[in-house]
Amino acid sequence: TLARQATLSNIRPVTATMQSDDPSELKRLLGSGLVLDFKTVTWMTQYTAADASRYVSIYRARARLVALSDGKVLWEGECKGQVQDPTKPLTFEELTANQGAALKSHLHDVADRCASDLFTQLMGKDAAP
To answer: In degrees to the nearest 10, what's the CA dihedral of 128, 40, 63, 60?
Structure first.
């Protein structure tokens, strides 16, 4: 987790869904301090150019560190990625079988990679390829 990797002892996860990503809304909900705000910008599944019966999923997220006192964005990063291996695109039926198990698994994997990439950016290290 971020708290463990960055050796921070006072991180409190908030699971509230925001109606707006305006810093004033964050301040209204959370009060004071710093907040690390995450937002899924895009996730979609689209057919491949090579085969309209095969699909890949795309994911893009944004994270930012906001000072709630003045709403200033102190840091912002973005990650984007293809959910599954583009050389092995799945059919719609494969993605949605078993209540979307393959799609859910792919999205979980890319979200983990994205979080790792954002943490690397936040810590000022080179992003993983």
So the answer is: 30
pLDDT digits (tens, 9 = 90+) for 112-124: 888 889 999 998 8
CA distance 127 to 91: 31
pTM (two decimals): 0.75
94 HSE (CA, 13 A, CB side): 12
Q: How many CB atoms neighbour CB 103 within 10 A?
A: 22
- Rounded Cα distance, 80 and 42, in Å: 9
Distance, first Cα to last Cα, the chain: 21
Q: What is the pLDDT of residues 23-64, one digit of tens each?
A: 988 888 888 889 999 999 998 888 888 899 998 888 899 999
Distance CA 96, CA 104 (A): 9
What token pair was written down for 35? 């907040």
